[in-house]
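Notes on consecutive records. When two proteins share a document, each keeps its own sequence and its own token line. Never mix them. Below: protein one.
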Amino acid sequence: MLQNQDRFLGAHQSISGGIHKSILRAVEIKSNALQIFTKNSNRWKGKELNESNIKEFFKLKEKFKFEKIIAHAPYLVNLASPNSEIIKKSTESLIEDINNCLKLKINYLVLHPGSHKGEGEEKGIANISKNLDNILKIFKKENFYILLETTAGQGNSIGHRLEHLQKIREKMKYKEKIGYCLDTCHLFAAGYDFRTEQSYSYLKYQLSTILGIDNIYAIHVNDSKKDLGSRIDRHEHIGKGFIGKEGFRFFLNDKDFFNIPFILETPKENNMDQKNLKILRELIAENFEL
């Protein structure tokens, strides 16, 4: 029998002031999981990580027993692009991120699959698969994985259908280096409902048959400012959006997701991370059997 405090709940935290500060921010909100950017998310190239900050990062990680730390790739990266210059910059940026992750002993990097820019989903998926293979062959011996994130479906983005993510992985040589990150806001905006036991069961069936439950390594927990199927990516605080507080209960109490981190990516004002985490904890059954 496991207690609800054993779950891995956290939020994306800033690395401003040094990479180690992210752990202190995570501790401040009483979380036990963490997501970070390893560099400025709006630039192709970042500053080299400071060695003393890395050492402090490891000291704090050990002190506060942070088992679940994942990273997120910059939003500029677009491996689906038909533009060779964008592919070059995206590849170099992602390689830099992976090297940063290895220095920090972070095993998972979340990646938005990209936008096909009008070239069509099939071409976009083929580009992503090829470009990921070119990157991951460099790291084929490392204990490291790219987590493709579900997307809301804005514009020409790839990933708003589970089949997109499955096809990317299936086409790859280094498919064993690919996992998935679910985002509740993105799934909902893309048209996947999970607010009732019946709708959650159907989504779980789709996740199982298309992606494989064992390939899901993280879940972003965000409510949605827009309604089901809007294909608009707008995160909202837990219980304040169209998903609603109860819509998160099924994910949080699903034994298949017990060992993975649930990460908030909601606005930071007024200490809302701590308030959102409190709501999530209240939704987890006091005791549950695995």
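Protein two starts on the next line and is unrelated to protein one.
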Amino acid sequence: MPDEKRSRRWVRVRTLLTIALAVVVVGLMVHWVRTVKWAEVLTALQNYPVSTLAAAAAIAALSHLLYSTYDLIGRHQTGHPLRTRQVLGVAFVSYAFNLNLGSLVGGFAMRYQLYSRLGLSTPVITQVLGLSLLTNWLGYAFVAGTAFALSPPELPAAWELGSAGLHGLGGALVLLVLGYLGLCFAARRREWTIRGHRLVLPTGAVAFWQLGVSAGNWALIAGVVYVLMQQHAAYASVLCVLLIAAIAGVITHVPAGLGVIEAVFIALLSRQVPQADLVAALLAYRAIYYLAPLGIAVALLFGLEARGATDTDRHTGRRSIGNSSYTR
């Protein structure tokens, strides 16, 4: 009974914190929509150098490619026989839909649909998806922890966490990452079954692989925004604000973090970057990192579905790749 009470109390606290953050973010969104001078934003967009847009697009493409390799970690762990281009294609399409329509559509439903068409069984897909999520947030924890611990941004006075709290949170995140790495290297038991799902702890080498690709990806995403801001703000500042905005978007459950990312950036960087230039950079970021990949993903989606059955029959010789045959 005491454990149940503590659990209920924690759920209530977490719910209240989520609601409080959502209220703050919505307030910021309303404020920035009312105060932005949209004519100046349009002028800033029209004056973007082609070289700046091209550089941002190149970094965005590299980020999407790096994210797509997350699912190769899942292939390594499960041993499924899909080819690299198939895995990269599924991961890219899923990521693009995830960014624009939310994790339930992109991160989950899209992966299950596409991998099922390619012959993977549900238990294998679940393992691949779980490893992808773990990889993404492992890199986030390391990058955010390091950034917040070493150089936390100055938060508005109304934000209760404060820069000191952010500093402590950064240290905790780094310790969490180190704990995971230590577990992967030292744990004797490496496999568990929880509610019918088989969980296999990666090796230390795979854990470093996860950390490297994910940390690199978060750094690249910040690089896209930094380039579009045309050096009005330091890269470290842009990185910290992006990391805060990412969590705000997840907590508020707004698809694509629409308005949430912009509100957080304006609240934290408006003193360093002229507001019109800041909003223009964020709109360009959405077009380059979110919408353009989505257009490509829609086109790829039809090709992946059309070729899925043919490729599976030719290269695996079976329609369904079962968990028992192709997992380690």
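For the record: The chain is about 75% helix and 0% strand.
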